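Morning!

This is the sequence you dropped in the shared folder:
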Amino acid sequence: MAIALVNGCVHAAIAMLILLAGSRIYGARSARLAALLYATSPVFVARYAISGFSDLIFSLVLLAFHFLLARYESWDRRQALAAGVVMGLAYLARFNVNIFMPVYAFLIWRKTDRAGFAVFCLAAAAVISPLWAYNLRH
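The structure's back. Tokens below.
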């Protein structure tokens, strides 16, 4: 039952982040609609709220990454570090985020300089490296 409480809190946090990020990017009306659609989606409410699948955590982390993308026009190394850590966490939640990594890498490349891009890549690799090490040993 504890996992249902945790997933419910994560679900509510994701809806709030959708509202915040959507308001900034698309406007308040669209953001309210998107948050409402997410909050009442039967996929997340009925199926995942109790069972503890990683989709909620993945959604939260990926939404945080998109919030970082929308928040800053140009990045310094601090923002690149934060984005790298968040991208690494997204990979740990669901490894199939690597399908979108080339697109995200291109977006990061456009927002920062080469050193910032290197910081992004190294931060993501540092977060993912324990999983890689485990997979190499087993």
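Headline: DSSP finds seven helices and no strands in the chain.

More detail when I'm at my desk.
O.
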